[in-house]
Design a protein that fits this description.
The protein is an alpha/beta fold. The chain has a single domain, classed as Hypothetical Protein Mth938, Chain: A (3-Layer(aba) Sandwich). The chain is built from 3 helices and 8 strands. A hairpin with a 2-residue loop joins strand 1 and strand 2. Helix 1 runs parallel beside helix 2. The radius of gyration is 13 Å and the shape is globular. The model has no long low-confidence stretch (mean pLDDT 96).
């Protein structure tokens, strides 16, 4: 079996992230072997009620065994209760943090775990 590591986040600042092998963007969805821009419009995501179960399901479908969710720099982004319920039912460890803390935790986990994450670089 080929081990696909999750890409490292090499820079985070307000409205700007740099991700290994993916380049620069505002919000990212990252998982073992890669990632992409996190486009909220795909799932009609808003700050409230927040991160949708379908967004986390994509991380699981791509092999994530641990999930890190960022709530933004000012903790404005919420997480739907159904999202946390999905992860609990699947017995997937989840960490919900302010963005800078989420990035640090994700990068640490990515060294040894199949981690996925959703990262919001503003509010």
């Amino acid at each position: 079996m080929i081990h696909l590591s999750s890409p490292q986040i090499t820079h985070i600042s307000w409205g700007r992230m740099e991700v290994e092998n993916l380049g620069v963007g505002k919000d990212f969805m990252l998982y073992p072997g890669g990632g992409r821009a996190w486009e909220w419009s795909e799932t009609n995501t808003h700050h409230v009620p927040g991160i949708q179960p379908s967004e986390v399901q994509e991380l699981l479908d791509r092999g994530s065994q641990v999930v890190v969710l960022s709530r933004g720099m000012h903790l404005a982004l919420q997480v739907c209760p159904e999202t946390l319920q999905l992860l609990e039912e699947r017995r997937v460890p989840v960490y919900v943090e302010e963005t800078n803390a989420a990035v640090a935790l994700y990068n640490e986990l990515a060294r040894t775990r199949l981690v996925g994450g959703l990262f919001h670089s503003t509010c």
